[in-house]
Specification:
- There is one protein chain.
- This protein is of the alpha+beta class and 316 residues long.
- It folds into two domains: 78 residues, no CATH class; 208 residues, Winged helix-like DNA-binding domain superfamily/Winged helix DNA-binding domain (Arc Repressor Mutant, subunit A).
- It is 34% helix and 18% strand.
- A four-stranded antiparallel sheet has the order 7-8-10-9. It has a two-stranded antiparallel sheet with strand order 1-4.
- It is extended, with a radius of gyration of 27 Å.
Amino acid sequence: MHDNGIPLGLKASDRLLQSLGGLRSDGNILPQPVLSVSVFSFDTGDVIVLEIQPSPFPPVRYKGKTWIRVGPRKAVANEMEERILSERRSANVSMFDIRPCLEASLADLDLDLFRNRYLPNAIDAELLANDERDIRDQMNALMHRDYESNAPIKFYQYDNRIEISNAGGLYGKARPENFPNENDYRNPTIAEAMKTLGYVNRFNRGISRVQQELKENGNPDPVFDYQRIGVFGVSVFEMWEEKESPPTDQISSVKTSVKILELINGNNRITIPEMAEKIGISVKGVEKNISSLKKEGYLERAGSRKTGYWVVKSRG
């Protein structure tokens, strides 16, 4: 078709129509599109119309690349644009907490069942006896977890830290560059119910409250792990007892190691000179702390020195 609307004089042969229809299933476009081919005949030639329905599961790739419109031209989508498209995919999939649970009844919504039967079987009795948190804190992980996963909430206790991991990484508007200032809810129905029932005082306050309590208790800042796909983790390091009077350089080393892990969690390809600049210490100082982190099992390097990346390990 010319720009002025006059057909080109094309003849819609069976071979041409088969070729166009084959675009649907030749494997170059994934996920496969919903495509229909129509022919309209005029005195000046045939007009072939390909109608392609919008995909509910973006991003759609052609030969491995995602193409988007940027103003009047097309371009290959960058990482952030692909992430936005991926979130549209998840928005079209029914979330766990809004699906009907046909086998459940009102009698199953029993908090005593959670307190008196589930917790004693799921958590060590001594930990429960010493747990001073109220029920709101204990149910927080249940609100944020990904119920599509069968992985349990994991709690590991070591000599110098506690590690907690939960199924479900950062979600929606929450990203490594704005966490924990920005939050979003994977299970909005559960979150709304917990807020209504009084188990949540205020949305988007849990992380900042925990950070403040750790600071008041004398603990280093927690280290968040959101690099692993489908998992959110946090490491809480032990406090320094006043009676121990730890050397100043030892305290400084712990704080530097925590900062290194935080920088790597934000960018696992960050270089040692970049870490030194951001932390404000020498390159040798960063290398010394990284050597200690590797020896203690917190960190490892994958790939070559130039093209490799850092891996924060969850021991246990």
